[in-house]
Write a structure and sequence with these properties.
Blueprint: H1 6-19, H2 29-55, H3 64-84, H4 90-107, H5 110-124
Length: about 140
């Protein structure tokens, strides 16, 4: 893992995440979801790299703290951009609900799941918001 550069890891994550997303017409919500997922994945991957280095007893590279801080900032901005959008199609509403559900489950805490549901209620309460289709 030490032979891979940060740029290689982030580039690989970007390609993997964007290649798995369906190409649907959207109102801006779907690209924002992809960007937020990419930012989440990059931040989580950097955490795994840090944990691997610590477990191996290796020192953190110079500038690692600043790098993680910048990833956290990008993740936060990507999420804020996503929260600012209102889903106006059933596809974007379903994708937004799926993103928040996955985030809440990935965190593994009741508080994270509750916060995700609260955020979704606020987004879907906006004027013009389309509700996601009901699960069958």
């Amino acid at each position: 893992m030490a032979d891979l550069s940060r740029r290689t890891i982030l580039g690989t994550l970007l390609v993997v995440v964007t290649s798995r997303m369906p190409a649907l017409a959207s109102n801006g919500v779907l690209p924002a979801i992809r960007w937020a997922e990419t930012a989440d994945a990059a931040y989580l991957a950097s955490g795994r790299v840090a944990a691997d280095l610590a477990a191996a007893g290796l020192p953190m590279p110079a500038g690692w703290c600043a790098y993680r801080t910048s990833l956290a900032r990008v993740r936060r901005l990507a999420r804020l951009d996503l929260y600012a959008l209102t889903p106006t199609t059933p596809e974007s509403a379903a994708a937004l609900a799926a993103y928040h559900t996955a985030r809440g489950e990935r965190a593994g805490s009741t508080g994270a799941r509750r916060a995700a549901r609260r955020r979704l209620r606020k987004v879907f309460a906006r004027p013009g918001a389309v509700l996601p289709p009901r699960p069958t």
